[in-house]
Amino acid sequence: MTWIRKHAVAGIDVITLDRSPILEHFVTLTPDKGETPKSLFRRVAEVVHALGGQVISAEVLGMSAEDRKYMPGLTRAIDGRHQPIGWVENTRAENLCGVHVWIACGMPITHVVSSGRVVGSLFEDGFVRCCRLTGLLPGDTSQGRPEQADAIFREMDTLLAGQGLAFSDVFRTWFYNHEILAWYGDFNRVRTQFFQQKGVFDGLVPASTGIGGGNAADAALVAGLLALRPKTEGVKVYTVPSPLQSSARDYGSSFSRAVEVATPDHRRLYVSGTASIDKAGKTIFLDDTKAQVRQTMEVVEAILRSRGMDWADVTRSLAYFKRAQDAPLLEAYCRDLALPAFPLIVAENDVCRDDLLFEIEVDAVQVM
What we know:
Structural class: alpha+beta
Strand order of the largest sheet: 1-2-3-6-4-5
Low-confidence stretches: none
Shape: globular
Distance between the termini: 9 Å
Largest sheet: 6 strands, mixed
Strand content: 35-45%
């Protein structure tokens, strides 16, 4: 029997997928008012140690360049120096930041290493063999931005091959591009060319997030992915269209609106970074953040409902506001519509278009 358990206190959400003897914990922590990164990371460690198991990945979103000094403390606090950690920088304006940790118990997990640095985890159960890569950085940051992006894709492909997987097994990607508005077109061209070379368009095109964000290496971008290979015929991986939007490929972005992974005992839905874009691919509600929040949340809810899910099934979500002062609009929207509470990290980030003021991505799980 598969169960989902939820535990939430101030600033901490723990959602547990119980597939006995396997447990997966999706942990989201956000700072209390005025809390320092050092204190937040200490709380992360306390929760991780209390849950036990092994860390599959950790994501730190919204920290400033000044906060890099706290990174060693975070890695030591979690488990020494050997954890895959994605670190995405912004300004920490209004203390908008947070940490998401994915932990598993009851299944073997091995590290994926690149140039002496742990960048991912390989794990499997009776249904799938899965790889999570995070915090991937280009090896040569002196190259141009498109060249660094191409290097990231090549590194992804190499690392997956080393684990007995291929890029065709990738179903979810994340790209945090420094100064994204200056070169998002170049990035899309690099991604599309790589996908063409690898035959991605002949199979499943991954769900994705492409958002602004810095990193501790001052590289052009930092990236991550999820890939899996089924071990039984009972596993299905397929794209999920957006009822209120057209395909992103119609306007030159090579990603799927959402992807679902279904196994005999549960389903996981991964909704791409979603913003206020209509079926023609145009930004709507210009200069109106409140309306963009409403439109975006309605789009995501339509995707969830198309798969028999709702906000109560969300296990992880990241929201990005172009302006930190607009962040209360999301809380107000959720309150006004009486949405069930769901784990959420909010940060200040540039979205991939200058006129997009809000974006959100969500993961959701439902047991069979």
